[in-house]
Amino acid sequence: MSTQLEGTITIGGDDYSDEIHSFVINATREVVSEEPTYGDASKVDRAGAATATVTIRCKNELAAASLARELWTAYLTDTAELAFIAKYTTGAVSTDNPSFTGNLVVTEIMIGTKSGDTRVMEQTFPVNSLAIDVTP
Length: 136
Prior knowledge:
Strand content: over 45%
Largest sheet: 7 strands, antiparallel
Order of helices and strands: EEEEHEEE
Radius of gyration: 19 Å
Number of helices: 1
């Protein structure tokens, strides 16, 4: 079992590793079921369309060079997309250290917390063009 230690998360071309507490990619596929027939009474499930999301838990500061500001800026654009590269360990990209890439779609964003709490946000974003790269 591995423990998540240091990695690199780049969003919109900037490294926000020092602001991100967690970056979780969830990829799923729809289930397409074939109904049984008189000739074959078994039901068969197949993998359908793929979808993915990323859940980010990060500092929620609005400084000019912060991730929260980058997300707000993207939210206000027509496409609301930001490219990301996630490497979950340090070192060069390889078969044992892949990078994951895609485009976050910033469909919602939040700011604020109750008085006295650390300002942190956790948001889940749809992802377009999810890929894994193992070439250095």
